Amino acid sequence: RLLRHMNPGDIPNFDAAALNWPVLLVSIVVAVFTGVLFGLVPALVASRANLNQELRKRGSKGGLGPSRFAGQTLIAVEIAMSFTLLIAAGLLILSYLHLQAENPGFLRSTLTMNLQLDGRYSKPDQRRALFLSYLTRLRQAPGVLQAGAGSDIPLDNSESLSDVEVEGFGKPKSLIDARTITPGYLDAFGMNTLAGSPFNDRDMKSNSKAIIVNQAFVEAFMPRRDPLTVKIRSGSGLETRPWATVVGVVGDRKHSKLEEKPRPEYYQPYTPAYDTGNLHFAIRSILPASQVASLARITLRKLDPELALDDVRTMEERMAEANARR
């Protein structure tokens, strides 16, 4: 029960671990037999030896005999293996502590959740209206400092990649991480705006030409340039896509793995052109996470009692899961 209580998560069937008495009994028998065989038998052999004769014999030979040399070699090998194991364990612990202390680029206290709409919301306008109405009510809930929604959240094991062309640079060789977000999303995660400004309600209109990039994007594709003067276009059929102007630069954050360096990514506003029945929400609050989660569920129930939130966790809990196997 103690071991189950210490479950770090992300280990299959860990909660089902139980004590198997036949296995335990066999283990005890094997342990006792091993102790007798490798402890008692050599002791009996040693007790029959004449120490005086052995010392005279070894002294007359001088130096190390074959058996003693083999024993010394075995000890040296065992010590070397022990040191190797200790060094490897120490490095593993240090790397884990370093990973825990590293800034992931987002607030650990932010509460995240997923909202999946059902078949009753068959039209894009219905889906968009429900998401925006829910987001508005979340922002008005007591204790909520900021709330936002987006296509992805860090450590959710999902990726959105897209073709990109940067004015004055061209097309990168690889696909770039793409995020669709509402106003308030970046602030809900505590992400700093390094230049320009975050999205506002005007950016969510159909004719929006705004885009936000992270610091890694700037360093990779527009070094030594003012990013707020650069235009970018993205998406399928890249050559026919309209150009969007960079209106803001935000700090880097870890997305897929905590140990990897932040990759270039860009954020586009949640416009009517983006149609989805699944959206992630993020809430920054002064209240405990459990209270915020309860408020979020009550708010959704008032809006539509047949819908339910999924994967309700803080970013701290997501980080713990990402580090569980390590």
Any key phrases for this structure?
eight-stranded mixed beta sheet; 326 residues; 9 helices
Concise synopsis of the structure shown:
The protein has 326 residues and is an alpha+beta fold. Helix content is 40%, strand content 19%. Strands 3, 4, 5, 6, 7, 8, 9 and 10 form an 8-stranded mixed sheet that branches. Strands 2-11-1-12 form a 4-stranded antiparallel sheet.
Structural description of this entry:
The chain has 326 residues and is α+β, with helices and mostly antiparallel strands. It is 40% helix and 19% strand. Strands 3, 4, 5, 6, 7, 8, 9 and 10 form an eight-stranded mixed sheet that branches.
**Could you give the count of β-strands?**
12
Principal-axes geometry comes out as: elongated
The description of the largest β-sheet is:
8 strands, mixed
Beta-strand residue fraction: 15-25%
The overall average pLDDT, rounded, is 90
Please provide the ordered H/E string of secondary-structure elements: HHHHEHEEEEHEEHEEEEHEH
Q: Helix count?
A: 9
Helix content: 40-55%
Report how far apart the termini are.
Answer: 22 Å
Q: What is the chains' assembly state?
A: single chain
Rg, Å, rounded:
31 Å
Structural class: alpha+beta
Question: What is the secondary structure topology, with strand pairs?
Answer:
Blueprint (H helix, E strand, L loop, with lengths): L1 H4 L15 H28 L2 H11 L4 H36 L9 E6 L7 H17 L3 E7 L10 E2 L1 E3 L9 E6 L3 H4 L4 E4 L13 E5 H7 L9 E4 L9 E7 L14 E5 L8 E8 L3 H15 L5 E6 H9 L3
Parallel strand pairs: 5-10, 7-9
Antiparallel strand pairs: 1-11, 1-12, 2-11, 3-5, 4-8, 6-9, 7-10, 8-9
Helix pairs in contact: 5-8
